[in-house]
TrEMBL record:
<feature type="transmembrane region" description="Helical">
    <location>
        <begin position="311"/>
        <end position="329"/>
    </location>
</feature>
<feature type="transmembrane region" description="Helical">
    <location>
        <begin position="250"/>
        <end position="272"/>
    </location>
</feature>
<dbReference type="InterPro" id="IPR011701">
    <property type="entry name" value="MFS"/>
</dbReference>
<feature type="transmembrane region" description="Helical">
    <location>
        <begin position="284"/>
        <end position="305"/>
    </location>
</feature>
<feature type="transmembrane region" description="Helical">
    <location>
        <begin position="223"/>
        <end position="244"/>
    </location>
</feature>
<keyword id="KW-1133">Transmembrane helix</keyword>
<feature type="transmembrane region" description="Helical">
    <location>
        <begin position="19"/>
        <end position="35"/>
    </location>
</feature>
<protein>
    <submittedName>
        <fullName>MFS transporter</fullName>
    </submittedName>
</protein>
<keyword id="KW-0812">Transmembrane</keyword>
<feature type="transmembrane region" description="Helical">
    <location>
        <begin position="85"/>
        <end position="103"/>
    </location>
</feature>
<feature type="transmembrane region" description="Helical">
    <location>
        <begin position="144"/>
        <end position="166"/>
    </location>
</feature>
<feature type="domain" description="Major facilitator superfamily (MFS) profile">
    <location>
        <begin position="13"/>
        <end position="401"/>
    </location>
</feature>
<dbReference type="InterPro" id="IPR020846">
    <property type="entry name" value="MFS_dom"/>
</dbReference>
<dbReference type="InterPro" id="IPR036259">
    <property type="entry name" value="MFS_trans_sf"/>
</dbReference>
<feature type="transmembrane region" description="Helical">
    <location>
        <begin position="55"/>
        <end position="73"/>
    </location>
</feature>
<feature type="transmembrane region" description="Helical">
    <location>
        <begin position="172"/>
        <end position="189"/>
    </location>
</feature>
<dbReference type="Pfam" id="PF07690">
    <property type="entry name" value="MFS_1"/>
</dbReference>
């Protein structure tokens, strides 16, 4: 069965059923690259390695995601996006299943890189929602689908932490592969065909990335700022499980459960998208980034609280900073997607390449700082990087800025 896609008019809206399906698809796909974060301790024990060494697993997964965004997501501007999504999901399902049988650390690193590359199906799903939504509701529609993506990022930690503690790390990836198989079946029958309107070759598509970067100062400003925010995000989540174990004696299930707190912040995505449509993304960004900075500053004062208040306050800070990170990303997407609609796949590739380069830097730097400086070192990094992002956002985007 083939459904034909079309962009809706201003008087039409995307059906809620379709939005829910796209949201679930984005969430389950992107979750694949976050299952390994709450189980760093389990992997360290299983492979008899230091935490800093096992930190290579999430780092390579995120590098893979960045590579997939840069080299595979632009394919959506030249081939049918439905076929691209189905193909990626099929390969991702296979990679997740193979990961559960990793018996050596080098094998785990290689398959983690592949999982990251193929999980970029999540980005194709987000772009599909932008392509078929009416222009005056694009921010809201993308925001709703991004809520699913954010929920997948955060709830994957809950799932991974609990299953890892009680069923072993291998079971996590087997169940993840099963979830992707269900997505393949769903999208095969429900996702409309989305043929490309471009006649460009892959070489031309990739060759156009540099001119897009040079042409749009708003693009440069947005991707650098969001990349800096991603450093803070990844540094925190990569080291949280170890911090909770060392300071409170808590296991991976509790670390994963912090994803529930972060998921509360995911509700900001449709709110930020709708407000960006109405009052402008720049105003939303200044507030959102400020919330991120203040949340991490507040975490520095947690040791001053009574022990029974410390975890509750940390949960509150997690909700606030995730709210700010999510709102910032949706607002940056609203800006970037509006620059050149026919190049939306390539613009998205540039944006999320920087996001996941930031993620990879945050994972590596967070693990290093925690081992050599301590938790406060991680928090200082998580404060400084969004502070630089705020300064960048406060400067007007001009042709000469950020070149």
């Amino acid at each position: 069965m083939t459904l034909k896609a079309h962009t809706l008019t201003h008087t039409e809206t995307l059906p809620l059923k379709q939005l829910f399906g796209l949201s679930a698809g984005a969430g389950f796909s992107v979750a694949s690259i976050y299952y390994n974060q709450p189980i760093i301790g389990l992997l360290s024990h299983a492979f008899h390695l230091k935490v800093s060494e096992v930190g290579l697993v999430p780092m390579l997964t995120q590098i893979g995601y960045a590579l997939g965004i840069l080299f595979l997501v632009p394919l959506g501007d030249m081939i049918n996006r439905k076929k691209l999504i189905i193909t990626k999901l099929t390969l991702l399902c296979s990679a997740l299943w193979l990961c559960s049988f990793a018996s050596t650390f080098p094998y785990l690193l290689i398959i983690s890189l592949l999982i990251g590359i193929l999980a970029t199906a999540a980005q194709d799903i987000v772009l599909a929602s932008a392509a078929i939504a009416p222009s005056n509701q694009r921010g809201k529609s993308v925001g709703i689908v991004m809520t699913g993506l954010f929920s997948g990022i955060l709830l994957s930690r809950v799932f991974s932490g609990i299953i890892g503690q009680f069923g072993g790390w291998e079971m996590i990836f087997q169940l993840a592969a099963s979830s992707i198989l269900l997505l393949i079946i769903y999208f095969w029958f429900s996702l409309p065909s989305m043929p490309s309107q471009n006649t460009l070759t892959y070489k031309q598509i990739m060759g156009s990335l540099k001119p897009l970067w040079q042409q749009y100062p708003q693009l440069r400003q947005s991707v650098i700022a969001q990349g800096l925010l991603s450093i803070a995000f990844s540094a925190f989540w990569t080291t949280l499980a170890v911090f909770l174990a060392h300071n409170y004696g808590l296991g991976s299930a509790t670390a994963g459960a912090f994803g529930l707190a972060g998921a509360a912040g995911a509700i900001s995505a449709p709110l930020a998208g709708g407000l960006s449509d109405r009052i402008g993304a720049n105003k939303i960004l200044l507030v959102s980034i400020s919330v991120v900075i203040l949340s991490f500053i507040a975490m520095l004062f947690i040791p001053l609280l009574a022990v029974h208040f410390q975890i509750a306050f940390l949960v509150l800070c997690v909700i606030c900073f995730d709210f700010g990170i999510n709102s910032s990303l949706v607002s940056h997407q609203t800006i970037v997607y509006s620059l050149k609609p026919e190049a939306r796949g390539r613009l998205n590739s540039i944006l999320f390449t920087f996001v996941f380069i930031g993620m990879a830097i945050g994972s590596a730097a967070g693990g290093y700082l925690y081992q050599h400086v301590g938790w406060n070192g991680v928090l200082v990094l998580a404060i400084v990087s969004p502070l630089i992002a705020l300064i960048i956002r406060m400067k007007p985007a001009t042709p000469t800025n950020l070149m």
